[in-house]
Amino acid sequence: MHGLPELIVRRGPDSGARARIGDELLIGRSARLGSGLHENFLSLSDAEISRRHVRIFREGDSYFVEDLGSTNGTLMRGRFIRPGQILALEDGDEIFLGNSQAVFRLRAGTDSQVADIDLAAGISGEDGLEMLSGQDFQPEVSMVVDASRLLQRLRGADREETPVADEVLVKRMQAIVQVSVALGAITDRNELFRRIAELLFDIFDGADRAFVVALDRKRNKLRTLVRRSREGEIASRDFALSRTIAKQVMEEGKALLLMDAQGDHRFASRDSVMNLAIRSVMCAPLLHEEEVLGLIQVDTRRGPEAFSSEDLEILTGISAQVAIAMKNTSLYEDIEGLFEGFVKASVQAIEARDPTTAGHSFRVADYTEQLAIAVDRADLPAVRAVKFDREQIQEIRYAALLHDFGKVGVRERVLTKAKKLYPYELRELRLRFQYAKACLERKAWLDLLNLSEAGEMSPEEFRAHRAQVEAGVREEIRKLDRFLETIVEVNEPDYYYDKNTGRLQEIHDYRFRDREGESLPLLGDYEFSVLSFAHGSLNPEERREIESHVSHTFEFLSLIPWTRPLARIPEIAHAHHEKLDGTGYPLGLSADEIPVQSKIMAIADIYDALTAGDRPYREGISSDLALNILENEVKEGKLDGDLFKVFVDSEAYRSRLG
């Protein structure tokens, strides 16, 4: 094993951070320490990461990863690592924790994204960017260009400059236009930097290597974004950058050209630089509205004077276009973050109307995203053709987050209805039973009083008759109590009419006489209908109202001017209650008519509805029982069996949200 392994953060708030791994590395979130490496603890700013989330450690010549009981879990190779479970790490393994993604590299310096480098302290060889000299010196620069003035001239803003030859101007403009067109539509940061390197080699025939370095002003550090040769990715040991040149380019906004770097005797003491055989170097700032974002370096081993002053001016113009693209990418990421916040706030606002199911949409989005990723990676023949790129994963996640947004159009009392009868309806029914009992007792006592006043019975006969009447009243009251117990039992959402063997009909047929002698029912027609035929806690009318939320969701989401990568969100959310056999709603779609994303979401939605412990009408069931119910749905032809198999095999049902 050569050197220490590294963990590189590729995605998340701390993207680009890197930590060497000795015997042990702990990763977590610490407000006290702040972001960065603190001895053997890598502190990340991702709010979804636990304070002690995961550890990587060495045993012998091998490295292992262990989840430390984190709240949101750790995902590797498409599966969650159970707390306490230890898995062996292989070079290139991707580890997902919170909203961040990190990659494990067995050998340091084999990843395109390197750790932050402190510009003020110099560029250290240990961090992959090698200083050409430990002392500040002025290299024998062949040409220095004020990048800001050059960009003004290229834009035609500086009218006092001497006109350049037409062919030179055309070449400059062609190069800048080529870069502008190529980079204009790129929003993915990694793709942007890959394309930058390709364009630099296309434009500068003499270039052997190209580097793009960004400045993190908050940390005052440099970070390499591109490190490539014409043959592909290069190791950090092959990257040499002069601290003095970097300082002049970054702090003064100067573009520099060294026609013969090896001819400068002050570089000769650096054996590694001589081994690299660098001959000509160009370096230009990434300048955007007077703000320096970083620099681009292009160099060659082919010989001195490989680059000309014209090449330096072209590189300076290209750097300005790259800076704009980087700024646009940063703004695009900010917009994505803003939209993410808006979506989450919208979901929370809707779920606040129904506190009993709060968190459902976030959990469904979590299950859906995990299943989509698992399907994309699955080797199961039936789903091998189903592939999702990053934007499609984002699209299905947003669709899952917003799938219940249409509940804003459903009455709150229907959303929160826990049992077949509303609480006020059951209270009214109980009062009716009490009134019926009171009427029975009143009539019995009045009859006895009238009989006593008539004097037709002896005292002994009257006492015997009274005892008989009281016994009859007590028996009738016990009957009413049994009726009420039946109603309370049948009122539960999981109780179906065919279980009560006609007892409800007996109650419905029962009549009592009120104070005026009018015959009244104990159980009204509406109450009988609700208790008899409600599905769960909802009667047929309420069920239709609840089901209408899907159409409301589609109508609402269709009003949003989605960008092209997110254009199918309304369609995906609209079909998440459809069934393969056509028995779903609202359109009654079947099989191939249902988008695969909606089929994925349907599994996630049903699983969470079954296991959630916050439903008003029942307690959540175990994961195993929920999976059995889903399996029965597959057997009945309602859910996709191949997707369900991936759901089980990948353990996508294990929530990262805790």
Write up this protein.
- By secondary structure, the chain is α+β, with helices and mostly antiparallel strands.
- It folds into four domains: 6-105, Tumour Suppressor Smad4, CATH 2.60.200.20; 117-332, GAF domain (Beta-Lactamase); 352-413 and 542-649, Hypothetical protein af1432; 425-440 and 470-536.
- The protein is 42% helix and 16% strand.
- The chain has 18 helices and 22 strands.
- The protein has helices spanning 147-154, 166-184, 189-203, 243-252, 271-276, 309-351, 360-377, 390-401, 412-415, 423-454, 459-490, 503-509, 525-533, 540-558, 569-574, 596-611, 623-635, 641-649; strands at residues 6-11, 18-20, 24-28, 36-38, 41-43, 54-59, 62-67, 74-76, 79-80, 86-88, 94-97, 100-105, 117-118, 143-146, 209-216, 221-229, 232-233, 254-258, 280-288, 291-300, 511-513, 519-521.
- The strands form four sheets. Strands 13, 14, 15, 16, 17, 18, 19 and 20 form an eight-stranded antiparallel sheet that branches.
- A hairpin with a 5-residue loop joins β21 (511-513) and β22.
- The chain is elongated, with a radius of gyration of 37 Å.
- Residues 111-140, 157-165 and 265-275 have low confidence and may be disordered.
